Prior knowledge:
Layout: H1 2-19, H2 25-42, H3 47-54, H4 63-100, H5 105-115, H6 119-134, H7 139-157, H8 161-175, H9 182-190, H10 196-229, H11 236-244, H12 248-253, H13 259-275, H14 280-295, H15 299-332, H16 335-345, H17 355-369, H18 372-389, H19 394-402, H20 417-424, H21 428-453
Helix pairs in contact: 1-2, 1-16, 2-4, 2-15, 3-4, 4-14, 4-15, 5-6, 5-7, 5-11, 6-7, 6-8, 6-10, 7-8, 7-20, 8-10, 8-20, 8-21, 9-18, 9-19, 10-21, 13-14, 15-20, 16-18, 17-18, 17-19, 18-19
Amino acid sequence: MLITIIAWSTVIVFMALILAKKMHPFTAIVLIPLLFSLIGAFAGLYQAPAAKALKLPLDQVGTWEVTQAFGIWIKMGLTRTSGTAFMLFFAILFFCLMLNVGLFDPLTKRIVKIAKGDPVRVLVGTSVLSTVVSLSGDGTTTTLICCSALVPIYKRLGLKMMNLAVILILQNTILNLLPWSGPTARVIAVIEGIDVQALLNALLPGMILAILFVTAGSYYLGLTERRRLGIQSLTGDDIDRMFSETSSEEDALKRPNLAPLNAILTISALVLLIAGVFDPVFIFLTGTVLALAINYRTLNAQKERIYANSGDVLQTVIMVIGAGVFMGLFTNSGMSDAMAASLVDVVPQSMGRFWGLIVVLISAPGGFFLSNDAFFYGVLPVLVEAGKIYGFTPFQIGFASLLGQAFHMLSPLTAFIYILLGITQVDMGEWQKACFGWTVGIFVVFIATALMLGVVPLYR
Length: 460
């Protein structure tokens, strides 16, 4: 019981500090789980997992030994996120270099000409582009491609960067339910014999309606921006003049004569990333050093570019490292399991006939507060077994468990959101609040569609 209270307190205090802007996310994501873990250690919790980590008999494990285990648990968490951290390190540096050399300037200019200074067109275009690129199933790829193309446009037209961060993540949230993405792939792995095509067919109607809902929302947000900024009625000369208004320092970094070579390098990196031919770290490490060698051939120029872009890299990478610390302590101490059990135990058996809908509701906090591994590998099997008792099939429970993914991308445990927040320079708490109402809408669309199609029966 006490470990459950500590687990929920860890998450609640962390989120409260973020939303109230009382602490930097990196500080909070490391300090809060560490403090509550220490409270648990002095309360006599964690002896069994600490004994396992330290390879000691249980009777030899006291408070000091438990705190020693913290280092092992943190290391385990950092090991899980180190690959992501290194990948993001080189991916962000690579795309920063491509922005420096002006690779995306022609695309940006073309989109501005199509939009003709109308915020509605830009925001609806953001929704469409985010949807198409999210078909890859990879949030990092979606963020890097969309932000590289759209951030300069938002800056040039004076649009709120928050709208870009919100629209992009909403569409990526929906497309993340494709079978080749993380959560659905885990459901397929956990539930033996599940029909992948049947699962996709059950998900698609809700996904399509949710995509249309977000696109309509982007139109609405575009109207608010149009009221704020107006339609700029840009002529071709105006757009050319807009793009010529750059500083001499920025112009000195551009390499228009090397644009074909840089385009080939970027497209090759993205194709290899999507195809899964090489490890992403290798792809972006190689791409970064080639980009430096091709575009900035002197030692001083390369040093200056690495130094100038290091701030963007650091902001994202330290958050992934922080998430590794959080996951290491939270998972290996047993807090994650305790929270998962509390999500299941809170439902009285008398409500069993509504188990399908209850699983949908459990999946929302489960998808937000727990990592996908913890929820789908730890909680879902329990939900499936309970569902069998109440007359629900594993397919129905597996499908129901996916609907809470509407909220998962807002979780601080989702690594790639720190790229999005870093590039768009929006505050995490403000971004979560701006997204929340829309994610509730997506969740409602998912539930309504599932109930109407009978994929999740209202009751048995």
